[in-house]
Specification:
9 helices, mainly alpha, 185 residues
């Protein structure tokens, strides 16, 4: 069975189609939700609910479009909503920095062979900084850098203008940059 056949079966009410989709998309979906929620159990719940939503709404899915981006958009949106509902977000004031020197420095460190030892430390710094972003900020960072979505794709998923997405992404990067700079001090 391939993805198209699974979707066709699911549209016909055959649950084996959903089983195929879960098998092929669950790991990436849980990782995506976890990066936003910071809670593995909550991420797994979000993904499970998202798959159930797929089962309920698959009839409206356009088979001419790829399934994974459509599904992962629903996972991102559900993760953000869950975090907003559970009031687990960390409120942090915005600090505006113009240069991207912290990202460039972290990138240079990871590129060198000697820096592989430091890589775990760098990943921990980034992870710690991500925890301090709001769920929406984490979501745009995850969409852009983990899911590799374009700004246009992100705008379509959010139902907003590309300019709005650019603004949200810029604000999230600036906040992350400021947090990373503080962690190096």
């Amino acid at each position: 069975m391939d993805e198209q056949q699974a979707i066709y079966r699911l549209k016909q009410g055959d649950i084996s189609g959903l089983e195929f989709l879960v098998h092929h998309h669950q790991v990436k979906a849980v990782r995506t939700a976890y990066l936003i929620t910071r809670d593995l159990g909550l991420a797994e719940d979000v993904v499970q609910d998202s798959f159930l939503q797929v089962y309920r709404s698959i009839r409206g899915f356009d088979v001419a479009r790829p399934f994974e981006p459509w599904f992962l958009r629903s996972v991102v949106n559900a993760s953000v909503k869950m975090m907003q509902r559970s009031a687990r977000q960390v409120e942090v004031g915005a600090k505006r920095e113009e240069d991207e020197s912290v990202f460039a420095e972290l990138s240079r460190r990871v590129e060198s062979v000697e820096a592989q030892v430091e890589s775990v430390e760098v990943q921990n710094q980034i992870w710690d900084a991500m925890q301090k972003l709001s769920p929406r900020q984490r979501a745009v960072i995850v969409q852009r850098y983990f899911l590799e979505m374009s700004e246009k794709e992100m705008a379509e998923a959010a139902g907003s203008a590309v300019g709005t997405v650019k603004w949200m992404l810029n604000a999230a990067r600036e906040r992350l940059r400021g947090l990373l700079e503080r962690s190096e001090e």
